[in-house]
């Protein structure tokens, strides 16, 4: 695991799960994080992009559903307009046209990335095993909290596609990125010991790997220190990990206590114009437990071959519900509307890393607020962050 000279990093085949590409902004086919990654690294490194057929289908479904919901709202407004004037108003946009245009848009997007869509290997899937896994909720199948429903069929098809693809290319450097622990964990188990295959939670984590390649460390050394960095920062079984030892969550809540308070009631522009003398009695109240997400550390730099600097991302996610006055315009919250608040922090820390990938002298450097959002919560958001609304 020593440092070596390398003229050019090896080629990598990158396979992405749906959650890595998910975009809240449906004006983009994929997340801005993906496009930022691709713009920065695809031209610098030899990376081939692979999308399982189910991943493309899920993205297409999400975007098409959003577009059709918009069409339903437009149709509703046309109905209102017709009622106001006692005239019939119509437009020419049909649902089938939207579906066709959305498919065309995604095909062009995939083509622009020179990506390949890999079909689900239906003929080689052990359907008896998959059926049994679904019945007994074996990974990647999981059980809903009510214990009445299971989920994971689409994930299982993605896993089968990934496993078959890896088997077909035994000596290729393949990277699979997914933040679904059940999916990635079972995929890793199915693949077994394969030095050519890597599993990451985020694009940032893979980007860290590529930056470490630039430092001309061996693949084995990079993978070893990335795995060790993950456990040294956060390990729920280790009270000596930096996350616990430095009381990171308590520090964040103390230093940024003003941000964690319940979002204040704000009068929207539409409401202020329509009712300038009427006080707003609406308010946002907590509608779910707070979720804390700790992501794998990202390599930042090293001052010499021993002292490495890492950045760990932590997200706080909570659902809020609005109650009170609301006129229903685009600028005003409906009573009962649910918003998702996301607070993203970057924890910078350092460690001395030995040639055997051992970590010593861990030190917390800084904690910074990276992003703060308070936006309309979608069903995709709730599923992504495993959030359940409390009963009103």
UniProtKB/TrEMBL annotation:
Top-rank lineage group of the source organism: Bacteria
Record domain DUF4935: where: 14-181
InterPro entries: DUF4935
Designated name of the protein: DUF4935 domain-containing protein
